[in-house]
User: Fold this.
Amino acid sequence: MQLADAVAVVTGGGSGIGAALAAELAARDAEAVVVADLDAENAARIAASVAGASTRTSVWSHVVDVSDADAVAALVAQVVDRHGRVDLYCSNAGIGTGAGAGAPDDVWDRTWAVNVMSHVHAVRALLPMWLERGAGHLLVTASAAGLLTNLGDAPYSVTKHAAVAFAEWVSITHGDAGVEVSCLCPQGVRTPLLFGAAAGSRPGVDVDGALAAEVVKAQRILEPDHVAAFAADALEAGEFLVLPHEEVADYERARAGDRERWLRAMRRLQARLGDG
Assistant:
């Protein structure tokens, strides 16, 4: 897709990859960028910063709980009311837990609601308009955990696999009707999700110091602006799978080629990091 003159929504736009995506889209002359986040203060701060750096793009913030279907539908409706359309929806908001299978049901439910159902809610709200227009682009921020796994975080790994699966389903089902889908699957990025509650994680969800975070921190950490620029290039190229950590493609091939060997290697990694 062409990002210049696009009307774009970025959820989770108040920090991390979302904030960097908003800035990158404005830098590429999007017509409008909506910074949507559960945290009103962060959303407004990022929107003001992006607007201050852009002379062409209309930038505004919107408070949304992406796990709430009605709230997502209202966000889409407001953008359409103000700009006439939504060209790009960056379904970027996500949470981690640092928990295993024994996490309480409410943690599993909340992680599913944010990491999976947020994408479903967005597609439900956008699809009729996009099918009528024969155009629209969905960017799902999943994770390398959605192609591999994240040691120490069962809810995150499971829901990110589901996010990738849903993105693939939308692409397969509606791609010939003009609905484009990209799925962003980075490893470690310097964001509040990875580096703790003090940097802005959701209350009660603090993975900093947990095995799940330490595994990722042991890999190559990218800055959010690098990931955003990489994703923007992939959007303009019409690519589905967006891998700013190129090595993830090798890991995925190794996993698919010899699952037993990959599982043994992951158990060794878990034992080594767990001992540390």
Notes: The chain is about 50% helix and 15% strand. Residues 197-209 have pLDDT under 50 and may be disordered.
